Amino acid sequence: MDYLAALRFLRDRAGYDRGFVANPFADEGIGLARTAWLCAALGDPQQQYRSVHIAGTKGKGSTAAFLTAMLRAAGYRVGLYTSPHLHTLRERVQIDGQPIAPETFGELMAELAEVDALLQRTHPEWGAATAFELVTVLAFVAFARAGVDVGVIEVGLGGRLDATNVILPDVAAITRIGYDHMAILGSTLAAIAREKAGIIKPGRPVVSAPQEPEAAVVIEAVAREHGAPLWLGGRDWQVEGNWERFAFRAPGSELAGLRTSLRGNHQVENAGVALATLPWLAERGVPVPESAIRQGLATAHWPGRLEVLRERPLVVADGAHNRESAERLAEAIPACFRWVRLWLVLGVMRDKEIERIVAALAPFADGLFVVERFAPRAAPVERLRAAWEAIAPGKPVWAFQSVAAALEAALAQAGPDDLVLVTGSLAMAAGAREAFGLAVSDPREHEILLG
Known about the structure:
It is built from 16 helices and 17 strands. It has helices at residues 3-11, 33-41, 60-73, 102-122, 131-146, 182-185, 189-196, 213-225, 266-283, 290-299, 323-336, 354-361, 381-391, 403-413, 426-435, 443-450; strands at residues 50-55, 78-81, 93-95, 98-99, 150-154, 171-174, 206-208, 230-232, 238-242, 245-250, 253-258, 307-310, 314-317, 342-346, 367-371, 397-400, 419-423. The strands form three sheets. Strands 4-3-2-5-1-6-7-8 form an eight-stranded mixed β-sheet, sandwiched between helices. Strands 12-13-17-14-15-16 form a six-stranded mixed β-sheet, with helices on both faces. The chain starts with a helix and ends with a helix.
């Protein structure tokens, strides 16, 4: 297969409205069996390097970026598996900061297609592997063959039944848990936390961000059930300060004068989760010196998160896609920027808490530019307009069919001291980055994945 043929193969296995992160409950009776079988048939590549497994509702990607940057600064070869992607699906599988090459992706997917065909002949009752399962196994194989020292693996959806959960990590990490994917994971923090805590393995250490009591109780209980040492943020480790200068304390570790390259005080907590994994990794033979810690935090790159795309007028893109991330964005924007008027360019997936997202951001905005067809699961303009008019009556609202068109209109409206904020989804942030020429996506890939 070439890369485009591999994408076509994946497209036919995609679910969750082409989002490529499968609903893990669709085949709950099968669970992780397909993924585990594929891995075993390929020699269990996920066991051939150290690994950190990251679950949570908010901050998974940023935590993974911080950890990857610190490990790379220490001289380790690092594989990073994340989702979703911004501009190309290959971004999900990175080795030392570079997306997997198109030809390598195609070659590995061709190999996986043969193994998957054998799986279907051997266990026809299981059905075919999903797109997310295939890409997950592809990442594991790519990391093993590239000889990475550490794999940093982000959960796609939930944790317990997510395809990534076939790994036996050296450390598990759980970022802040909130309300997201409730139709799938549950409507209470306890239910969602139990799914996220499904990545905890017997005897393997787990690091958690500070959690609401309802979620913390569940994580503590699951850790006890599995005999897994737990470091809970706010209890066993602490961070103090802001993103430009903060301190970290944990048993046997104290660092001051730290700074992150990622804007927003919420990033201090994400950095803290990454830092709290390091003593456990050191016990597994992966020490990271203080110099690498400082360098990694200060240089970590994670596009689409409070990213400044242009000055005067200021244009900022952020992938906030649920209630909690929108609320954090609402806190971060005035802490990081100044403006005369703020113009909100917003597109949200239809399964999100749209009214709460709008409620978090509307108080800052002088007008709304709604984008409707930026992704397959995009919410209709009528719902966004209704939420806006209920919360911000009298403030103008305009509707557009693309991020580029909405951004052009917002810039025409904005003065030199205004702020244009593009948010609601990583797909929105990607569209803004491409509109400014900061990245280029292949229209053929876009057509295949969304076709």
